[in-house]
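Assemble and predict.
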Amino acid sequence: MMDNWARVWTPANWERLLVGDLFNRGEIGGLALTLCIGLLAIAGSTVIGAVVGIMRASDRKALNLPATLYVQSFRNVPLLILVFWAYFLPPVFGIQTSKFLSVLVALTLFTGAYIAEIVQGGIRSVAAANLEAARVLGLTPRQIQFWVVLPQAFFNMLPALAGRYVVSMKNTSLAFLIGLMDLTEIGKQIGARLMTSPVEVYLTILLIYFVVNRGLVMCLRLLENRQSFNRLFLRI
Amino acid sequence: MNTDFSILWGDPGTLILSGLVVTVKLALCAFALAIIIGVVMGTLRWIGWRAVEPFCWVYIEFCRNTPPVVQLLFWYFSASFVLPMPVFMFLRDFGYEFGAAVIALAFYHGAFYAEVVRAGLNAVPKGQFEAARALGLGFLQSLRRVAFPQAIRVLVPPLVNETTALIKNTSLAMAIGVAEMTFQYRAIDNFMFRGIEALTVITVLYVILCLIAAWLGRLMNGYLSKHLHARNATAIADRQIVGGEIIR
């Protein structure tokens, strides 16, 4: 039993799991690639989600309708199918794409649809009395959105947002299905080479993902209430 | 770009249909197992027995924070080491890929269902359960007659969300070679070079499956709010009157 663990946890294997073939062949891979895709997708989808979410929360039909269409169509399709679309559709029109880019685009659009829902819910959750008070105090509509609604919505939606970020971090593992060298693919290769210790290999990968995602959750929990947010960023 | 959807009346169409059947089967089996795991685990976490608490926590947190694909690979490749031999032999006779996919998806989504169930039970005031116990109802009886009927109304919408996620995640089973829809699409793309057409069709089919799940959820919600609510509303009204009396 310990033998198997020793065979899996060699320095060479750990290097491949963490950075892939970065030092041998100059190709980034493993956990580094997973984090790259995950963090870029999180950043991009937050931007998309914020814009689309605000559009969904508005009463104007011209803003609301396209946003609703986007959210509904992207939420009801498996991410894997979106990855295949992003990978196989552009070449049909003669556009060159890369595996990295197609996974990133698919993941960003998919997560963006979910985040839009969260943002919309956050905006709706701000009590109407706040808006009335702001209007009475003479704030312009833009000021009301920026200084009254969005800050409150932000703290209301943080727990849901944290959950969504973890899901998108987990979903980066789909990259291996179109042949990217991410953590899952490297682990699969190590498992295939050793052949006798799949339990140890896959438990190791699961453990790495677990540590990363728990870490992400704990970081986001620091922001979860106003006090700790202010302490961290505003030094109040 | 030249697409020709008429090819779907031939072999590709039958392949996609057979894939659809496998997808639906997989989703139903995984859903049944996941619901059982979810209800048991969620209830155990809600009760908070010291003896099982750490075990439940480890299970739920581990399954929620790791990717479903890796869990699928784990259950597929290390089944002969992890599962008891008779169980493995039994599953192997059906084609083990399907069994592994069911187990992995059930454990993964079971953890999410457990959180949903726990949140639903948390929405019921703890006093309800304690009062039922004090009035002499058995443990399971007070869960079944008092806690769950009140929790289930809060619980249906997130449950539906999770179930659509489960349906969507069945597409991952292609990673271990279960012949479901996405797998058949890859086959059609590889052997007949009709990728875009097949991809369009299975995208539409997935959307339809998800919408059906959402529709069933809405139906259930409506049924529950009509039947459970009517009865509970009078109960709540009674309780408020009684409460008022006591305060006075």
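The first strand of chain A starts at residue 20 and ends at 21.
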